[in-house]
TrEMBL record:
It comes from the Bacteria. It is found in: Endomembrane system. Pfam families: EamA. Its main location: membrane. Residues 312-327 have a biased composition (Basic and acidic residues). PANTHER family: EAMA DOMAIN-CONTAINING PROTEIN (PTHR32322:SF2), INNER MEMBRANE TRANSPORTER (PTHR32322). Residues 297-327 are annotated as: Disordered. Keywords: Membrane, Transmembrane, Transmembrane helix. This is DMT family transporter. Residues 19-144, 157-291 form the EamA domain. It comes from Alicyclobacillus fastidiosus. The chain crosses the membrane at residues 12-33, 39-59, 71-92, 104-123, 130-150, 156-175, 187-207, 219-241, 248-267, 273-291. It is a multi-pass membrane protein.
Amino acid sequence: MNISKSTSRTSQPVVLTSLMIGLLAISFSAIFIEWSTAPAAVIGMYRLWMSVLLLSPFALKRWREFGRLSLRDIGLVCLSGVFLGLHFLFWIQSLKMTSVASSMIIIALEPIFVLIGSVILFGSRVSKSGIISMLFAILGCAVVASADLGKGGGHLYGDFLSLVGTLAVSIYMLAGQKVRASVSSTTYNVLVFLVAGLVLFLFNVMTKTSLVSYSGHNWLMFTLLAVVSTVLGHGLFNWLLDTVSATTISMTILGEPVGAIVLAYFLLGQPVLLLQGVGSVMCLIGVFWFLRTNSSRQSDDEENPAGQETDSAYRGDGPERFDAGHA
């Protein structure tokens, strides 16, 4: 795979190192969550709001972008924020109930769900290869879930929550794609993170969950999620989009479940069952196949302008595709 759009050979080691650092940073997201004893909504709320504090200085440099937002854009930002908040609520809770392997593999289906939504909402077309790869990936997730059958209803419910969280983050991507074409990813993230954090704040208030009575260890995990997984991890990917292709970033992010599973094995002592391993490989092959198929169609569309609109419905028009959605 050609990793570079415009980098020289001398800069390729820097690019590769940055890709690996970014991958490691987002892979640690599930580990930090497992290491925290705080409720899911509290973890998500502080991760989002701390990220806002870190990103705000960069967003304020683009303050004119805020004025370009129409009422429709603001409505879409709010809708995106609601579903991002729900995503964190369901996905983080899934990690509390099932294994990292099961939760992370299921959420790897996000790009497939986004394309399905694009087909329904925007009339995007899917090739036969795309359909086969999607079905193969979904079958792989079913195999992963089957490994949890003997672990009790709690693990299966955790798998279900991960699936719901994946659907929520897919809606978040679809709802905000028009706004992401108008403003930078930093500005968009700050606005959406604010709304998503507010959703989780209201959930905590309604459920009478404590907002501040947590140990220093938990506050450290909140901070690491914001600094390492969100700002450093996805920040590196956004920065690299100036020099490497979006497909390369997609393929790198595809390694997140693998990285999280390996880290969970060594740091959390979570073994990978045979069915989980088989299903994980099937799912990742299916998603990889899907992304490669979509990338090929993208190249065809660049030669055929009539296909550009269809492809952009999935891709979100560039860097904003990698705006710290779930990890």
